[in-house]
Amino acid sequence: MAANSEANSDTEDQDKEYVGFATLPNQVHRKSVKKGFDFTLMVAGESGLGKSTLVNSLFLTDLYKDRKLLNAEERITQTVEITKHTVDIEEKGVKLKLTIVDTPGFGDAVNNTECWKSVADYIDQQFEQYFRDESGLNRKNIQDNRVHCCLYFISPFGHGLRPLDVEFMKALHEKVNIVPVLAKADTLTPTEVKKKKIKIREEIEQYGIKIYQFPDCDSDEDEEFKQQDLELKESIPFAVIGSNTVVEAKGKRVRGRLYPWGIVEVENSAHCDFVKLRNMLVRTHMQDLKDVTRETHYENYRAQCIQSMTRMVVKERNRNKLTRESGTDFPIPVVPGVADSETEKLIREKDEEVRHADHEPESHQHHHDHDHKSEHSSVHHEHSDPQSDPETPSDQIRDEAL
Ligand code: GDP
Question: Which positions fall inside the Septin-type G domain (predicted)?
């Protein structure tokens, strides 16, 4: 009897210690499966390098049914146009909305200087749209069109990177996660592939191009995982082969390319890095690509945007000191979390400048006015950031903008 009651109190103790937050991952899982996932992939590089074929092979869909190919004459003056294809794919109840952004016409014209510009503009436009949406009143159901990854196709026929490749990657590396791929790898022997990869990696380093960096794996990961991670890093640029046809190889039907001398299998890792690339994109790094887009590339864009808005405000303030008193004339929306250290520093410096420029009686007047204003906006101060000093200039800006 005594033993029994002891056992009972044991389970009670356990129950007491079990709050239940261990189920959080399941809750998150259920919610995200219900919501579905989305991913936006951009493919860039000279036309004819096999971009559309590879995308179709990657996601086993025909995304380019309605594509119209231009003849040589039409391509001479062609500008880079951006096209978007969206497909909803489902696997074991998990839905993925996949958007492919293509850049037909890239490198096609006779004069290709700055042909990366429309691609860069496109990426910026998506950031801008998101920035507007999340600063707006209704932040529910924001359509996120930010580009999470750009597969950049490098020609297998050149000697490493061409000037256009360097220019493109340098222009975009701070806006998007660039993953370089060596196109049509079946046109090269394994030794040539190896040499080209080394050359391209060296050039990427030499020209200071910042491609997508796979996150370092934790020291407590198992050996197999570490080995896979190392192999992945050494595969850059992924040597890829695409095919839209199914052929028969050793009694099995596989995606491949049939030549008089044999069959190249897309999904055979002895033939190319297709499977490695697909696993990286879909199975292992999709979430990281999205995180880096949000935390690094979008944050950079947002910070730049806020800084230029601040500059506008400061200019406006200098131009018309009355703005300070009227307090409602700023032409910009209030952005949540403006307390960016760079921005605050900038505003503080500018505030100092303005204060020095003011002559004595006026600056006294300003101080008085400011005190007066902070009385009126005390409620707002409480809401904006209770920890921040109510006298800081950035708070003034937020107040005035409101
Ligand atoms: P895109 O203009 O970059 O989209 O290129 P396409 O996917 O339209 O491919 C252009 C041509 O290259 C087509 O004739 C394809 O059959 C061929 N092609 C595509 N992928 C490969 C590949 O991996 N190896 C080889 N040898 N040819 C390919």
Answer: 35-308
